[in-house]
Amino acid sequence: MVSKKIPKPSKRALPPVKRPKTQTVKTDGDILLPTGPSLFLRLPSDILFEIFKWTHPVTLLQLARTNKALRNDLMSKSATKTWESARANELDFLPCPSYLSEPRWVAFSMDECMICESKNAGITSLEMGLRLCWSCKERKFLPASKLRLRSRGGVRSCLNDILALVQRAQEFSYDPWTYHHQEPPTLYYIPEVEHVGKEFMEWKAQIKLGTPGAEAGFTQFIESRNAYLAAAPSPAKLCDSIKAAKAKTLQDMFDGFGW
Length: 259
Hints:
By secondary structure, this protein is mostly helical. 47% of the residues lie in helices and 8% in strands. It has helices spanning 45-52, 57-64, 68-74, 80-88, 102-109, 134-140, 144-150, 154-157, 159-163, 190-209, 214-231, 235-256, and strands spanning 24-26, 32-34, 123-125, 130-132, 141-143, 168-170, 186-189. It has a three-stranded antiparallel beta sheet. Strands 1-2 form a two-stranded antiparallel sheet. It is globular.
C-alpha cells in the first residue's frame, strides 16, 4: 500500500488583524476627544446662525471657505439675513447694492483679488462686482480686437452679436501723457464672454438642426440678456446710491444716540 504524503501547512504569517476604529481618540492626558465632525458643526442651525450674526463679515466669508457644510449653509439664500446682520454691525462696510449678493459684496470689499486671492488688489469694477490684481486683470479682461483674434470658427463670425449681450467695462489710462488724448477702450470679461458665447452657439446649432422650439428659446435668451444689461446700473449711479445709503445709515445711528 502506497502512503500519500500529506502537504504541510504553509508557514507564511497571516496579516495582522486591524484594530477596529473607535469613536474616540486618546490624547496625552486622560481626556477622550470625539473624532469626526467638529463639535461646532454639531450645534443646531438656529444657534449657529445666531452666532454668525455677531461675527465680522470677512470672518463669515472665511468660514464659508473652510468646508462644504458651512459653505452650503452660508451661501444659500436663506442666510441673507445673517449676512445683513453681520454687515450692519460694522460701520466700515457700505450697504450691499441690489444687483450683488451679500457674500459677493463682502469679497469685493476686501483687499484680495477675487481670482488668485493675492493681497493689495486695487483694480475694481463696481458694475461687475469684481476686485482684481493687475495680472488677473490683464488675463481676464480684453478688448474686442484681441477677443476676435482668440476666437475660432463660427464664434468669430458671431462675435459682434455675442459681445452685444455681454456687460462691458471701461479702462481708464493713468499715463499723464495719454490720459487726455486717447479714448479709454471697452473691455470684456473673458469668462462671461465664454459663458454667453457657448449658450449663443448652442442655440444657433439647435436652430440649424431644426429642433422644435429652438427659435423661441433663442429669442427668449436674447431678451433675458438684454433685460440683464438694461438693469445693470452705471458706475456713477452706483456711487451715488451707495453714498446715499451710507449717509442714511450714519443718520440712523446718530438718531439712535439722541444726536
